[in-house]
UniProtKB/TrEMBL annotation:
Pfam families in the record: Acetyltransf_3 (PF13302)
Name this polypeptide is given: Acetyltransferase
Molecular function terms, GO-annotated: protein N-terminal-serine acetyltransferase activity; protein-N-terminal-alanine acetyltransferase activity
One annotated Gene Ontology cellular component of this protein: cytoplasm
Keyword Transferase in record: yes
Lineage, top ranks: Bacteria, Bacillati, Actinomycetota, Actinomycetes, Pseudonocardiales
Keywords: Transferase
Length: 168
């Protein structure tokens, strides 16, 4: 796709495993990634979802090394919409990579997948994720109260959206 994004490869499993072990990163994975085999399964799941046209995930690269994930999932063909999600390893945060990758995957979703509307949300206590969303052209749409539950604590989220017609 570019020198910034590429599909995850089976050989990336050690990087995925290391990412999942970082603080609070386990929340970024739908299934536990606590072994090399689990990381390999996660990568295989991404390929299956791509084949099913339901989700497209890409490794975010920094000098050719995967340091994060950028995905458009919940691809919905009737309404031409999708859900953007992302995570970055600790050493890659604060470099603008996530914002550039979010812009790139948005363009992919609009041009290659033909989607019209992209959505994302972040916890209100995650201002860095908000900066990524706004920097990638996503407009704030509202707060969803007590939407997420982690370790017995409920969190509000802020929803953002970007339309193919938005001027970025």
């Amino acid at each position: 796709m570019s020198n910034l994004l590429r599909p995850w490869l089976p050989s990336d499993a050690p990087i995925v495993l290391a990412a999942a072990a970082e603080p609070e990163m386990d929340r970024q994975f739908t299934t536990p990634v606590d072994s090399l085999a689990a990381a390999q399964d996660w990568i295989a799941m991404l390929e299956e979802r791509r084949d099913q046209d339901t989700a497209y995930a890409f490794a975010v690269l920094d000098d050719g090394v995967p340091v994060g994930n950028m995905a458009v999932s919940q691809v919905e063909r009737r309404h031409l919409s999708g859900w953007i999600s992302y995570w970055m390893r600790e050493e890659a945060r604060g470099k603008g990579l996530a914002t550039r990758a979010c812009r790139a995957i948005s363009e992919f979703a609009f041009t290659e997948l033909g989607l019209f509307r992209l959505e994302l949300a972040h916890r209100l206590d995650n201002p860095a994720s908000c900066r990524v969303a706004v920097g990638a052209g996503f407009r704030r749409e509202g707060v969803e109260r007590a939407k997420l539950l982690y370790d017995g604590v409920r969190y509000d989220t802020e929803t953002h959206a970007r339309l193919v017609t938005d001027q970025v």
